[in-house]
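Structure ticket #2291
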Amino acid sequence: MKVRFLLDENLSPRLKVAVLRLNPAIDILRVGEINTPPLGTLDPDVLRYLELSQRLLVTDNRASMPSHLEAHWAEGGHIWGLFWVRPRISIGQLAQELLLIWETTEAEEWIDQLEWIPF
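Resolution: structure written out below.
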């Protein structure tokens, strides 16, 4: 199965536009859009959404997400991957990284995996 992305609400909406310019077939949503958690959704609810929707989270939230992720796993939950965005990466470079991931990997490879991007 192809990777399906969910962008954290703290990331620029321009990132989604940049990714879709590279390949409009990529399944990428952002928190706050239709059929996603609304803006302001708490991390535990975002993690549950990720599990049910089979989406990989792209986030720069290194403050609250780690502890919520540990709690999610402790409760027996799973995620379809999580990418921590490195500080000061350009939107263009980040979009290229997501395109590369989408083109070269399958969603199942990222289950319960955490990774920093760019790699």
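Closing remark: The radius of gyration is 13 Å.
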